[in-house]
Design brief:
Elements: E1 6-10, H1 13-21, E2 26-31, E3 37-44, H2 45-57, H3 64-86
Antiparallel strand pairs: 1-3, 2-3
Helix pairs in contact: 1-3
Amino acid sequence: MKHGQKNYSSKDFYLSSCLIAAGLNLSNITQSNNGYFLFHFDSSEKEALDILDRHWSGSLEIPTKDFVEAIYQLKNRMRVSLKSHEA
């Protein structure tokens, strides 16, 4: 990834939900041939990894309501993505 480039991606559903709850913008969801989803963010790798480092160290403070809403949002976007591939 080039320095400053904003296109962080993750395959992890719950960590992606955490990033959404922390305020990062989910730009796209793609699905690989083996069925895995890839979540794409309009954020640099550094910005995303800083949030995830705070998550793993226990210092990231996100209201639980925001995290739960991010999970619902991500599940809904995955359903929409699946439906668009079926059409």
